[in-house]
Specification:
alpha+beta; binds magnesium ion; five-stranded antiparallel sheet; 50% helix; binds adenosine-5'-diphosphate; elongated; three-stranded antiparallel sheet; 3 domains
């Protein structure tokens, strides 16, 4: 890693620095890192083109590394922007929101400083950054949206919440009175009638009446692909280690008011099916093979006992392992879908697992594509 560190920006939740040509966001809380990573890596796997994609994470230093962008829309707006660029950036913002909405996600912090601009030679490339509040439409952290970009009345966690923020940004882009960029009445300073009538609709008091990103693209005459996503998750029968610990998982989820626990169960089940079971199956076969070889030397009874003892030990180890994974899954669910982060200490106490084991399982789950995709499964 390069010694040279340049500060790229600072928000309420993290500090971003340029290290070795990459942007590194440092978090204060583990749950914030887990939330942002899970949402970001899911978007990467889904192949979005207009949202930031994380590259790696480090649970010890609480850092996420991403590709570095040149600037953000706030800085561009403050410097002054051409008419052509205003439309270009609006189009790219809407393209990003179409991608999120197709996946049933709400960003919950759409504002110019979270829109990153300029990648390599493409100075006009705009993507949606800061995935710190991204969640499924029913669980998005709307109350944490910057005040200037959220509705003053009846806040909802639907898609309309982000669309209200788009209305405020459009006023900032298109109002001819620089000071009048927040209120509905400011639309009188917008020359383009299509734009001003869209802003009025984006400020509708009933969130569901606000146009969604795809509808806006159509009305503005921008081409937009149909949603082609297919449900990709596979449903497996429950692996036996997890089946045994179902009550344990239920108990923890209930005591911490965990949302979407059935998706957590499915995600962990798939993970265990692919990893623990497969691997353990092989291991078991391997050790059986070995003891079979020893058969000739050892007495039959002795061998059988040994095998039984080993089997019991393996079983206990596996169950403990599953508990670690369950606690890590609960933590991920609470970080992405919970209203506020849960206390790690009390979670570990409740689950009776060590911090070291928990962190190890957490790291493994966050690095598993199938796990993350099942946790973030868009059908809700
Ligand atoms: N990948 C990046 N490349 C360049 N600058 C970035 C990048 N990510 C964030 N920044 C800068 O850092 C600022 C804060 O980052 P952000 O992710 O919004 O943190 P917070 O969650 O604390 O608001 C952004 O406004 C932006 O200027
Ligand atoms: Mg931010």
């Amino acid at each position: 890693m390069s010694k040279k560190q340049v500060k790229l920006g600072k928000g309420a939740y993290g500090q971003v620095e340029l290290k070795g040509g990459k942007a590194v966001k440092k978090f204060k809380k583990l749950s914030h890192l887990v939330q942002e990573w899970t949402a970001g890596i899911f978007l990467k796997y889904e192949g979005t083109e207009h949202t930031i994609h994380p590259l790696s994470f480090d649970l010890k230093s609480l850092e996420i590394t991403m590709k570095a962008y040149n600037t953000n829309l706030r800085k561009i707006l403050d410097k002054g922007i051409s008419e052509e660029d205003k439309r270009l950036y609006l189009k790219k913002l809407l393209e990003g929101l179409v991608e999120l909405q197709d996946l049933n996600l709400v960003h919950a912090d759409i504002k110019p400083s979270n829109l990153l601009v300029g990648k390599g030679d493409d100075k006009k490339h705009l993507i949606i950054g800061d995935l710190g509040f991204v969640s499924h439409v029913g669980f998005s952290k709307v109350e944490r949206t910057a005040e200037a970009y959220r509705e003053k009345y009846d806040m909802s966690n639907g898609f309309g919440h982000d669309m209200y923020s788009v209305g405020v940004i459009m006023l900032e882009l298109f109002s001819e009175d620089e000071k009048c960029t927040r209120e509905k009445e400011c639309t009188k300073h917008v020359k383009d009638k299509v734009i001003s009538s869209l802003i009025i609709r984006l400020f509708h008091e009933t969130p569901d009446k606000r146009p969604r990103a795809r509808e806006m693209m159509k009305e503005l005459g921008y081409p937009c692909n149909e949603n082609v996503r297919k449900n990709k998750s596979k449903i497996y029968p429950t692996v036996k280690e997890l089946e045994k610990e179902k009550d344990f998982m239920d108990g923890i989820c209930n005591s911490f008011e965990i949302k979407r626990k059935e998706y957590g169960f499915m995600a962990l089940n798939t993970y265990l099916k692919e990893h623990t079971e497969g691997k353990d199956g092989k291991d078991a076969k391997g050790s059986e093979g070995k003891s079979e070889k020893k058969d000739g030397k050892d007495g039959k009874g002795k061998k059988d006992r040994k095998k039984k003892d080993k089997g019991k030990k393996d079983e206990r180890k596996k169950e403990k392992n599953v508990k670690n994974y369950i606690v890590a899954t609960v933590f991920i669910l609470s970080s992405v879908f919970g209203r506020s982060s849960i206390d790690i200490k009390s979670l570990l106490e409740k689950g009776k697992v060590s911090e070291r084991k928990f962190m190890k399982s957490l790291e493994k789950l966050l690095n598993s594509r199938t796990f993350v995709c099942n946790i973030m499964e868009p059908s809700i």
